[in-house]
Amino acid sequence: MDPWDHIRKAVADTRSGSVEVAARAGLGLEQMTTKRDVMRAARALIRAHPAMAAVWRISAAAIEGDVASYRDGLLRGSAAAADGARWIVTKRSTVVLTHSASGSVVRALRRVRGKVAGVLCTASLPGGEGRALARRLERDGFDVEVVPDAAIARACEEADIALVGADAVTGEGVVNKVGTALVALGAQEAGIGCYAVASMGKLMPAKVWQPEAAPAYESTPLELFDAILTERGPMRPGPVRRAAERILLPAPLLKLIR
After folding, report:
1. Cis (ω within 30 of 0) for the bond into 126?
2. Residue intervals in the chain for CATH 3.40.50.10470
C-alpha cells in the first residue's frame, strides 16, 4: 500500500483509539523516504489529532528514524498497562464507570472480566462514542448500561470505580474526551477510586497540549486520579509528572505548535 494511503486513513480515523491511529500512521511514516514527506505527513496527522500524544510521538520517531521501535513499544506498553486493572478491580461484582471509548479500557476490562458485574458507559457527547463502546462490550459478554452525561454524578454513586482512557498524559493532567473532569470530580464526591489507563508512550510535554485546537477534549488534573495505570504498574501523580516532563520532542515538531 502507498504510504500516503496509510496517512490518509489515519488522518480520517475518528473512531479508533490513539494507539490504533498511531500504529496505522506508523505504517506510512516508516515508508517515507524524505524528511520533507515526513514533515508533510506529521503536519497532517497532528492537525487531525492534536490531542493524541501517540501521534505526536510517532511523528517524532519518524523524524529521528525510529518508527518501528516506538510503535512496537507503544503496542506492548498498552497491552501491559491494561494488566493494571488487576490492581484496582480486586473484588467480585465490581461495577465500573467509564467515559468515551478507549481501547485501553476495553483491554483492561477483559483482563478482569470475571470480577466485573457491570459497566456504566456515559453517552460521551458530542460524538456519542459511549454508545458504540457499550455495543462492543456487550458483544464481549459484559452487562452494560449507557447513562446520560448529565447523570454522571448519579452513575458515580452506583459504581465501585471509574476507569477512563487517555489520549495524552502531561505533567499537568490527563487529556481525554470532554466530560472526563466531571467523572473524576464525581468519583471524588462519591468516594470511589478514579483511574486512567495509559502506557508511558502516551506521555508528552504539557506545552504541546493546546485546548483551542481540540475543543472536544480537556485536561483533567493528575491530582484527581488515584493512579495512572501504566506498563510499570499503577503510578501516582508525582512520578507521572516527572516522567512526562522528561519527554523531549524534535524542534521541527514543536514549530507546529501555534
Report:
1. yes
2. 80-245
pLDDT (mean) for 74-92: 94
**Looking up cell 522528561, which residue turns up?**
246
What does the CA dihedral 24, 30, 33, 39 come to, rounded to 10 degrees? 60
**CATH number corresponding to 80-245:** 3.40.50.10470
Which residue is it, cell 502507498?
A: 2
Q: Give pLDDT, residue 258.
A: 62
> Which of 78, 68, 18 is closest to 48 using CA atoms?
18
Q: How confident is the model at residue 96 (pLDDT cuts 50, 70, 90)?
A: very high
Distances from the Cα of 47 to the Cαs of 44, 138, 166, in angstroms? 5, 33, 18
Q: What is the pLDDT of residue 164?
A: 98
Sign of CA dihedral 22, 24, 30, 31: negative
CA distance 97 to 254: 36
d(CA 219, CA 231): 22
pTM of structure:
0.94
77 near 99, Cβ under 8 Å? no
* Residue 245 cell numbers, joined: 516532563
Which three-class secondary structure string do you get for 76-89? Answer: HHHHHHHCCHHHHC
